[in-house]
Structure formats: C-alpha cells, structure tokens
Hints:
Elements: H1 2-33, H2 58-67, H3 69-100, H4 104-116, H5 125-134, H6 140-163, H7 168-176, H8 181-192, H9 194-210, H10 213-218, H11 226-231, H12 242-263, H13 265-274
Helix pairs in contact: 1-12, 2-12, 3-4, 3-6, 3-9, 4-6, 6-9, 6-13, 7-8, 9-12, 9-13
Amino acid sequence: MKKKSKIINSILTVILSLLSLSFVMPILIILINSFKGRFYISDQPFSLPNAETFSGITNYINGVQKTGFINAFIYSLIITVFSVGLIVIFTSMTGWYLARIKNKFTKTIYYLFVFSMIVPFQMVMFTMSKISDTLKLGNPWGIVLLYLGFGAGMSVFMFFGFAKSIPIEVEEAALMDNCNPLQMFFLIVFPMMKPISITVAILNTMWIWNDYLLPYLVLDSKYKTLPIAVQYLQGGYGSKDMGAMMAMLILTIIPIIIFYLTCQKYIIKGVTAGAVKG
C-alpha cells in the first residue's frame, strides 16, 4: 500500500508540476521578449535573446516614456487602495449585520447581494456608463464608488459566512461592557475578521489592479490606469510596439505578483475559516 501511494503521489507531483509550468510559461515568454528588439519578437517569440536580438532595457525606457507609466501607476495605486479599503470596511459591516439580524428584510438583502455575483457585467455596463456620466464619476474618486458596488456581492457573501462562525457570546460580553454597535464591531468583531478581511482584500486587489474594461468605460482620457496605458502602445492600422508592450506588461504585473506571493497564505485560511457554519 505504501509503495502504491508513493507512485500515485509521484504521478500527481509530475502532473501538477506540468500544470504549474503551463501557467508560468506565458509570463516567462513575456519576460524573455521584453528584452528583444521589437522586430524580432514576432519572428522568434520563443527563443532566448542573443547578441543580435538583445535590446537591453531599451523597451522598458521606451514603454515608460510612451505610456506615461509613472502617472498611470499612481492612478492605479490610488484607485486600488481606496477601492479595496472601502470594500473591506463597508462589506464587513454589512456581512456582520446580515448574519446577526435575521428577518425577511435582511434575508432579501443578502440574496440580492448573492444575485449580483452572477449578473454579467455586460448587462449593466451601458446603464452604468450613462449614470457615471450623469453623476460625473469619470475620475479616480468616482470610480472607487463603482468598484465598491461591483465588489460588494462576493465580499458580503464571504464576510457573511465568516461572521456566522464568530461566537455570539463575545458580542454579548461586549454589550454588557456598555459597547455600542460601532465600538463592538471595530474593537471586537473586525479584529476577529482579519483572515477573511485579508482574503477579500487580496481577491479585490488582483481584480481592480488588472481591470481594463471599467476604467476604459468610465474614466476620462486624462486618467489612465496601467492596463489602459499599456493598450495605448497599440497604434493605428495594427501597428504596435511589441517590445515596449511586453516590457510594460512585466512592470504592471510585478507589483501584483509580489503582493499575491506575500499574502497568498491568508487566502485558504480565510476561505476555510469562513466555511465554518454557525
């Protein structure tokens, strides 16, 4: 039995290693091509740079200059940080409230949040664009409110599940110590929600940082996030600077990869903790 189990584990290790390589390979190809001259990328996309094709950091310099990378990075950072912060604070309060106050109204609100998770973005994007224009939300602060709305469904669902696992006795003890609801939440409940809060923050950060469609539809042209700035490298009539585009893709994904690798251990912890049924 031990020998059979060892063989199965070896086979699974090989399969999972190949699967992991299939996910990492596109990033490696982009990284390799970011150091090639733009005219060699299409002809030799899978070969390593050599003395003829190697361009050093020229692609990175050209990409930064052509896209306004610094401004785009600042806009992306501001939008992501404030959007994720609002999502975590407001949806954690909502999830806790819906888990504790049980009546027809809260049940209806909860199911509306769940339903919003399955509504395709394409069904609401035209109406959303019109409302955004009417309310003058085409700026970094306005789009933060839109991200709060679109990110609320999944986040409330996750916080709701986690809140049910928090012992009600802890909150009852806080009430006996004369805590009001806000004090109870921010001093007692919210610190206990740290695992799921980090999980929600990671998932929403990866989504908002890489999002292209919503900023493209809503933001004024002077506010370019990183995905939009990279797209601007594609010129008219199909012309595109592939070298600079590859370089900017690498610079765009590096921050989010570092963020994910730093916080990935909290994802499973938060999801499994929230799966405990109260």
